[in-house]
Write a structure and sequence with these properties.
Blueprint: H1 16-21, E1 36-42, E2 48-54, H2 56-60, E3 64-68, E4 92-93, E5 99-105, H3 108-117, E6 119-124, H4 131-135, E7 150-158, H5 161-167, E8 170-177, E9 190-195, E10 201-205, H6 210-221, E11 228-232, H7 248-258, E12 262-265, H8 268-274, E13 281-289, E14 295-307, H9 313-322, E15 332-341, H10 355-373, H11 377-384, H12 404-419, E16 433-445, E17 456-464, E18 468-474, H13 484-496, E19 512-515, H14 533-553, E20 559-565, E21 586-598, E22 604-614, H15 621-641, E23 646-647, E24 650-651, E25 670-676, H16 698-710, H17 721-736
Parallel strand pairs: 1-12, 10-11, 14-15, 18-19, 22-25
Antiparallel strand pairs: 1-5, 2-4, 2-6, 3-5, 7-15, 8-13, 9-10, 9-12, 13-14, 16-21, 17-18, 17-20, 21-22, 23-24
Length: 738
């Protein structure tokens, strides 16, 4: 048996050729002749009582087979955390994207025509769209059974913030706001459903967690879970946007009712209105520091617009509140996070999961404090940043492997070496073009938090006689574009001492077969989210492979082992003391940016980015660097361009012509990923997650660079040209005086 050294190699992804040549089959490619086509009747209004649904005209249209409504759903409620969202609304709609009816027809054209003929009688109700008003307990609840619109409240109490602020040498206040963000994945929602020969209900689509999709669908149809099979085709991106069900349950309902294969493919506009977004969060805060640069207190209120349904809002606001003090050890913290129901589009999981919103405020506040004290913002960070043994806001020591300071130093070292960060800037090309540098740090948890029973399971089977001829790795891990399947195969091959592929075989006859995309064939590895799959799924595969290899060496033919990996336990926060152990691992990031601001147009061009990360161990260096570069594109869009807008509960930006995404021309000419490999004690071969980290500090780094260039602070994201010009005009007016 050979001894490969696969860890760290930039092995090409086996799925790459199919994706670039167009032969890979995504869910929309699964639609075949003879399938029934589905079309959703959306509410199209933010809040209303349903007085009646008349489907007679639709049913009279040739080709229409059925119009399904709430009465057809056995258990009409679902949700990742709280089952508060109906599959089809029966008595009330709470946002414009609520589903009221499902038209099923022989052709797509008939389904579309039938949907237009469904008559829904509404009585419009007042739309609650301001989260501040929703927070008031006197406001009528959107969900009567909930009692109020306060979806979740998270409190963090550490030390005595009020006393520390009173004694601080410098106290600064600020208010920061962030907006919704659209996931904008390449492939809108699509899928099919059918019964297989064994009588199992099969749904093939794209998602992030096979077994959670199955659980929710089985519950809605009142079926045993083993009678429902979820399969994933190729997934064209997710970023948290496929954690919540969108169309899978509707396909399941249609096939279950009609006993015929069905298909549903959303347009981009349906996707924009129909699935959840990143939470808009407003942060009001006060920070206090001493003359020597020590941050002594943080007081913060975070208010998140959860939209019409719970989704993961209660979990997002926990993370955001925990990170209200950023990457810094602060002895006194008083933070309250609130998520509230509104009649806006639901908010849920999105890359960063509350960390970018909280640290947009935190990082700007640290830089402002440094300026107020006459300190270098870098030195301010050095004096306060987390170190091994630091106590986090929940009063517990951070999990081992705290690398925030070495990550910061590596970022600054690279910036100084490559472009003289901290030295005099080159001459401006024109008086209206001003350049500036910015620096920011970030922290993001890896995996599930606050006592959730985190685990991942994998099974490894070994076949052959004298030597292992091939292995099968079963692990229910979604490949949403991040390279997970390549990584898991590298981990298995390294552990088993096998090559990545058959010698000379170009991967066509792999020694290691992955079974990942079928809930009936692969065990539950959890969601492809929270930067956890390499860490959790990888560790489960590593341990299962080691156990199977030990069985093989003991004489078992074939050898088989299943391992469920559970990381160190986390705990909820104590309701009285707010103490607890919220996370088992963190990722750390620091970024330096250079920008150019056009003071005539307000346009901000990011010229260069250095993004430094502790990845624990780079299983596949190319994939890690690709994750960082791709995430920075999304982070740049979030910081400067992407402004999902709603007015009175209605979406104003349902197209990419109005919701602007970054293009190649918006990206920096120079992006430098800097990788530290300080092994995480629990990750496979020391690896830790990295997928979300680049998004956390980029917006405040850009804000700091804009301030360095112009002297103005932007406190609302995205930092659009209009906002830049408004800030510059206010600065000029203040300088002119009365």
């Amino acid at each position: 048996m050979i001894t490969p050294t696969l860890i760290g190699q930039s092995i090409a992804r086996p799925d790459a050729r199919g994706k670039v040549t167009g032969t890979t089959r995504y869910p929309a490619d699964l639609v075949t002749a003879g399938m029934l086509h589905c079309k959703i009747v959306f509410a199209g209004r933010p809040h209303a009582r349903i007085d009646g649904v008349d489907a007679s005209a639709a049913l009279a249209l040739p080709g229409v087979v059925a119009v399904l409504t709430a009465a057809d759903v056995p258990y009409n409620a679902y949700g990742l955390v709280e089952a508060d969202q109906p599959m089809l609304c029966g008595d009330r709609v709470r946002y414009v994207g609520d589903r009221v009816a499902l038209v099923v027809a022989e052709t797509r054209e008939a389904a579309t025509g039938g949907a237009a003929l469904v008559q829904v009688a509404y009585t419009d109700l007042p739309a609650l769209t301001d989260p501040r008003i929703a927070l008031d307990d006197s406001t009528p609840p959107i969900h009567a059974e909930h009692g109020s619109n306060r979806l979740a409240h998270v409190a963090i109490r550490k030390g005595d913030a009020a006393r520390a602020l009173a004694a601080a040498d410098v106290v600064l206040a600020g208010e920061y706001s962030t907006s919704w963000q659209e996931h904008a994945y390449l492939q809108p929602e699509a899928g099919i459903a059918y019964y297989d020969p064994s009588g199992k209900l099969v749904i093939e689509s794209a998602g992030q967690w096979l077994h959670e999709d199955r659980r929710q669908i089985a519950a809605m149809l009142r079926l045993p879970e083993d009678e429902v099979i979820i399969r994933y085709a190729a997934i064209g991106g997710a970023f948290g946007g496929r954690e919540d069900l969108s169309i899978q349950h509707l396909l399941a309902l249609a096939t279950w009712k009609l006993r015929r294969p069905t298909a549903l493919v959303w347009s981009r506009e349906e996707s924009m209105v129909g699935h959840h977004k990143r939470h808009p969060i407003t942060v009001r805060c006060r920070w206090g520091a001493m003359r020597d640069g020590r941050i002594v207190a943080v007081e913060a209120e975070l208010l998140a617009d959860g939209g019409a349904y719970a989704s993961t809002s209660s979990e997002v606001i926990k993370i955001a509140t925990l990170f209200a003090s950023g990457t810094y050890e602060v002895p006194n913290i008083h933070a309250d996070g609130y998520a509230v129901y509104t009649n806006n589009i639901p908010s849920g999981a999105f890359r960063g999961f509350g960390a970018p919103q909280a640290q947009f405020a935190a990082e700007i506040m640290v830089t402002r404090l440094a300026h107020a004290l006459g300190l270098d913002p870098l030195e301010m960070r050095r004096r306060n940043i987390y170190r091994e043994g630091s106590i986090e806001p929940s009063q517990e020591p951070l999990p081992p492997g705290v690398s925030a300071l070495p990550v910061l130093e590596s970022c600054v070292t690279a910036a100084r070496a490559q472009w003289g960060y901290g030295s005099a800037l080159p001459g401006h090309r024109a008086p209206h073009l001003r350049r500036g540098f910015g620096l920011a740090c970030g922290i993001k948890n890896i995996g599930y938090s606050f006592g959730y029973p985190e685990q991942a399971t994998a099974t490894v089977e070994l076949y052959g006689n004298e030597r292992i001829s091939h292995a099968t790795v079963r692990v229910g891990a979604a490949e949403v574009g991040q390279g997970t399947h390549t990584i898991l195969r590298q981990i298995a091959a390294e552990t088993l001492g096998l090559p990545f592929e058959q010698p000379g075989g170009a991967g066509e006859s792999p020694l290691i077969e992955l079974v990942t995309d079928d809930s009936s064939q692969a065990p539950n590895a959890g969601s492809a989210s929270a930067s956890r799959m390499t860490f959790m799924g990888g560790r489960a595969v590593q341990n299962a492979a080691a156990d199977a290899l030990a069985a093989w060496q003991a004489g078992a033919r074939p050898a088989r082992a299943t391992h469920t990996y559970r990381p160190p336990a986390t705990t909820p926060l104590d309701p009285l003391t707010t103490a607890g152990c919220p996370n088992y691992a963190y990722g750390y990031v620091s970024q330096a940016v250079e920008v150019e601001v056009n003071t005539l147009t307000g346009q901000v061009q990011v010229l260069r980015i250095i993004s430094a990360h502790d990845v624990g161990r780079a299983i596949n260096r190319q994939q890690v660097e690709g994750q960082i570069e791709g995430c920075l594109a999304q982070a740049l869009g979030y910081a400067l361009l992407e402004q999902f807008q709603m007015q009175d509960g209605r979406v104003l930006t349902p197209h990419f012509s109005t919701y602007l995404l970054p293009t190649t021309l918006d990206m920096p000419v120079e992006i430098t990923p800097v990788l530290l490999e300080l092994a995480d004690p629990n990750g496979p071969f020391g690896a830790r997650g990295v997928a979300e980290m680049p998004l956390v500090p980029l917006a405040p780094a850009i804000a700091a660079a804009i301030h360095d260039a112009t002297g103005v602070w932007l406190t609302a994201q995205p930092m659009t040209p209009e906002r830049v010009l408004t800030a510059l005009a206010a600065q000029a007016e203040a300088e002119a005086g009365p």
